[in-house]
Each structure stands twice: as structure tokens, then as C-alpha cells.
Design a protein that fits this description.
single chain, about 25% strand, alpha+beta, globular, Membrane-bound Lytic Murein Transglycosylase D, Chain A, Glucose Permease (Domain IIA), eight-stranded antiparallel β-sheet
Length: about 290
Amino acid sequence: MILNSFNRHVFIGILSAALVACSSGPRVLAPVEDHGKSSASSPLAASASKVEAEKVLPGAENAGKPGYYTVRQGDTLTRIGLDNGQAWRDLAKWNNLDNPNLIEAGQVIRVVPPNAAVEVAGVVVRPVSNAGVPAKAAPVTTEAKDKNGSAPVASATPAAPADEGLAFIWPAAGPLLGGFDEAKNKGLDIGGKAGDAVMAAADGQVVYAGAGLRGYGNLLILKHNNTFLTAYAHNQALLVKEDQKVKKGQKIAEMGNSDSASGVKLHFEIRRQGKPVDPAKLLPVR
């Protein structure tokens, strides 16, 4: 059939419309590539980086103030508590930590009870209050008399804590394998056989029971008063639970060789206000 000029134009128009309709499905766009700049330099990425850099971590306003600690990489609340003579549960409560396992490097947390006094350069001060104003207390003084035996005068020497005389006992009966070394060994290593009794060195309360502190294996930490903690590491079994009160000489664990211990032994520490001290100086002579 021969199409006249008009019909031919109509036919071509219909065919073109059909082809357009067939090709009007979903379109897939190629990824946008920026060959001149990296994605990090885009305005959006730059804005995100700026927000991250300006992120203010909890407690940052208290950094460097007495009674506070700035969290470092690798810290745990248990470790911070041990190093500051506090129970991790207390740290969580004082700092309103909903999840004590979530702390960030750079975060600043309170490590003394609210309103507790701490000594700085011989002067007792209190941590910053909620109003942001540090309350300064008077220096710790002891009464003394002048040369004429009359008016008392202030002494700048702090009085010894009343609980310094806490009497400890040896926590295990085995031989001493390793002594205290401030740089290498923060306590005593006591030998024995797997399953030997580990005893509480003094009356106290269990503030930690678990294996979450690297290098200590199955660990117990007891708090005896506001000054002293004791730690018992590398146990094969823990016989008491957190918050439980224990008596001096009570069996609290069984000796083992968990974690990094070289053979069966008890690693025993005494900490005065969080600082390791030589247990041999506080234990009775064998």
C-alpha cells in the first residue's frame, strides 16, 4: 500500500510515540563521581567533622579539678574504681551512668563522693558543686599548744586517718612467690595448689566479682572502709557475690591460674585510697 504524504507523516508520528513509551521505564543513574575533590572535603562531610570535633563529652567542665578523673583509652569503670579506692557501682551512681560499660576517652567523672573533701597541695578542698563553684574547706589541723602552754595553734600536718590501724591477715597459706614492686608488681604473689582457700584479709564488702579486668583473671575486690581495698586475683572459683558482706578469715575464693598467671597462685593487693601499697608492711610477720 502506498502512503500519501499526509498518512506517512501520521504513521511516523505514531511510531515515534510508541518508541518513547517503550523507553520510559525506571531510570538508573550512574554514581556521582567527584574526580577533583575527596568526599571528606565536601561541605556536608566538613560540617560533620566540625560537629564531631566540637562534641562536648560529659563532665568536661570538671577536667583537672580535684575529685575528678579524665577517662583514658582502654579504661573501664572497674579499673577506675580500683585505682581510686571506690566501688564501680558508686562511680556509676555519682555520675548518673545508665550503662557503666559505656564511657568514652575524654569523659570526666567524679571519683569521690559528692561533697567529699580531697587534699590538694596541703589544703583540703571539696569537688565543684552543682553550681560550678568550688567550696574550699579549712586545712586539716591538729591542736597544739604554743611554747607557753596556752592558746592552741594550727598545725599544717594532716592528722592520720583513724582507720589506718586496720588489722589484716594473710589471705592464703602458701609460700610467697613474688614481693611488692611499685613498677612491676602491685602486690604479693602467694603460691599454692588449685582449689586452695583464699580468705578475706579483713572484714569488708564485695564491690567487684568477675573477670572483666584484664590481667587479673577471676577477681574479687573487697572494700574495708573509706581508706582500704583489697584485691584477690587469678582464682579458679569465686565463692561470694557483689554487695555481699564478708568476715575476716572467711573463704571467699579458690586459688587458680586464670588469665595471665604463671602457674597456680594468688595475686593479692592492698590499696590505700586507690594507691597500691606493700601488703607485707601491713600483714603480720609469718
